[in-house]
Design a protein that fits this description.
The complex is a heterodimer of chains A (about 300) and B (about 280). By secondary structure, chain A is mainly α. Chain A is about 75% helix and about 0% strand. Chain A has a single domain, classed as Orthogonal Bundle (MetI-like fold). Chain B is built from 15 helices and no strands. The chains are: A mainly alpha (about 300), B mainly alpha (about 280). Chain A: It is a multi-pass membrane protein.
Chain lengths: ~300, ~280
Amino acid sequence: MENSIDLKKEKTKKKYRGIENPWSGYLFIAPQLILFLLFILYPVIEGFRMSLFQSNYVSETFVGLDNYIYLFKDPVFLKSIANTIFFVVAIVALTIAFGLFVATAVFDKSAKYVSFIRGSFYLPVMVSMVVMSMVWNFLLNPANGLIAYLLGNLGFENVNLLGDKFWVMPVIIFVTFVGNVGQAIILYIASMIGIPADYFEAAEIDGATRWQRITKILIPLVKPTTLYLTVINIIAVLKIFVVIQLLTGGGPNNSSVTMMYYLYQNAFVYNNTGIAAAVGVLMFIVALLLSLPQFKTFGKQK
Amino acid sequence: MKLFKKLGRMEKSDLIVNIIVTILAICSLLPLFWLVTNSFKPSAEIYKMPPDILPKSLYLDNYKELFSNQPALRWTFNSFLVSFVTTGLSVILSAAAAYAFAKLKFKGKNIIFAIFIASLMIPKETFIVPLFKIIVAFDWVDTYQALIVPNLATCFGVFMLKSFFETIPDSIRESAKLDGANEFTIFFKLMLPIAKPGIGALFILNFVTFWNDYMWQLLMARSKGMNTLTVGVAGLMQEISPNMGLKVAGAAIAAMPMIVIFVLFQKYFTKGITAGAVKE
């Protein structure tokens, strides 16, 4: 009995194979796979290796963990970690809070209004941090920028926010936030629109106020989106570079140096590729650890 | 009148919150408004405080200078070329891989897909040093290949399109098979046309990403003629020159295609961005 079933299975398998060429799958993924191996996997491995060498683009000597030891003794690097953490916490908190504020306000309104709000907040995301940084650079210019002028009218003389040790990070965080929050708004609105309306109707019949409906139903239900946004925003902030380069160059006195900017400077300005690779490895590990919970959700979807 | 009736039915707190949200939405457009309007002002007028909200006349010399004294035309061409070619190739390669992951059977499929997805979360910037070394070893610095090929190594499209292909019923494939079609015919003639909405969304999303790319283009494009718009105009800004109008016009030119694309394709963005995120 069992044998005949097995035989049958074998037969259908063969027949199936007849139509389905097992190689065509590999052929279809081959180009993407080769690109992945060459431009993602290999550089990651090579990055780990390079971080153990003292090197520039010409020669290298094995130094073990010296690059890492150097990093944790370098006050500029420690400053860059502190700045990056401050940056991450501020951006994530602002983005989640503001994204929720906007999305909960508009999600049940007319489609035209929703798309106007979504569009207005998303347009700065579209035009890229390069252009946004340039615009803010013009506006924040202490000599002839609009913001210095407006603050001047309020009685503050000669304000140079980007040249001020205390204000430089808040200002950069604000600029990044404005150029970034549109994505959170789009995702929140989309997932809120996806929630069945009966939940709200039932709550309304029970006499729940709008505030209660938002805090007790809506926000808990979009928790997966909140988690996703938290992770991708942390990772996005880790690699922030353009704003720093175009607005402050890390200054004044290193008060706006971030890890990515530190990496870039070492790699392409000072030619300390070993040090830069070590920073890259550290950031890589942080990004990987942060996204582990995310992978689990991806796995569950299957 | 209808609008007022609707507004009247809203809870008071809801109404106030929405007025604030609307005002903030308009505010978030102000920097771009400033950029576009000021690009039509002579430098002296840009410096003028308090500023005129709209330019006194449509002053075009900033743009004229940008395109005659600066290689802005070349930069624009480079940006379009690099963005179009990268996007086109990347969409085709992602679609092929996504199709295989969604519909074909082969050994190791799930593991390879999981590794692809894992790579999505790793910022490319963290391994930019070894990546740069590879390009140097290929002797590709300052070439179009350098601006295009490494950017094709992104698995975002595979992830996004896989779900589109999964929604296509298997019966379509099977009947095509019985008619004697091979896997490639099925992919190009059947699957690609059906997955058009997903491919459209991915195309636009990728185009914007590659257009706005900065760090990689900055590293790769060494000569002024190889610069793309973002790198070119960012370079203009860092030049010590009082010609404010020229710089503003440069930034405006880099922003303009994105504004146009957004106005034309808003719904694709929403679709693309949400498809890329966690599904419920």
